[in-house]
Design goal:
five-stranded mixed beta sheet, about 55% helix, about 15% strand, rod-shaped
Length: about 170
């Protein structure tokens, strides 16, 4: 790619289609950045019948205009250069999107594994609670586990048994 050079702003033509994408709030941000650190990235233009046609860098160009600049740092290229650069940036964006999706998939799988692990731990805890209650002769409150030794025939016997075993009635 050719070296950046100082280009006269008044010789740069902005196509109508490109002009429609102008966002004034972004121009203000770029202008503030140019005031602080200067123009870091040159614009891309192509020569066309005694003028330069803007290919890339609309907001930088408008920011320099707003700051009262008469020249801007730019690179002369062709439509193919801009197209190639766009493809490279699209490829980088696609790669970034793939990386993001891979990270999200990994997080989702880790979350699902943690949930399964937690569910397994809960199931084990439930089983051990049932075993403890079966050994001690009390119920966990889920379902009715009746001790075959304690067959009661009347409500009075049942109440007496509950008091003796520490149960609630």
């Amino acid at each position: 790619m050719p070296d950046p050079e100082s280009l006269p702003i008044d010789q740069i033509y902005v196509p109508v289609k490109k002009r429609k994408t102008l966002r004034p709030e972004l121009v203000q941000e770029v202008a503030a950045s140019i005031l602080e650190v200067g123009q870091q990235v040159p614009i891309l233009v192509r020569p066309d019948e005694g003028r330069l046609v803007l290919l890339e860098g609309l907001h930088r160009l408008e920011a320099c205009k707003a700051l009262g600049e008469t020249t801007i740092l730019g690179v002369r290229g062709s439509g193919e250069t801009a197209h190639h650069k766009a493809l490279l940036s699209d490829g980088a964006e696609a790669e970034a999107e793939r990386d993001k999706m891979a990270r999200l998939k990994k997080l989702r799988l880790e979350k699902e594994a943690a949930e399964r692990s937690s569910a397994s731990a809960d199931a084990i805890e439930t089983q051990s609670a049932k075993l403890r209650s079966a050994r001690s002769g009390t119920s966990t409150g889920r379902g009715s586990s009746v001790d075959p030794r304690s067959k009661t025939r009347t409500l009075s016997e049942w109440l007496t048994q509950q008091k003796r075993d520490g149960g609630r009635y």
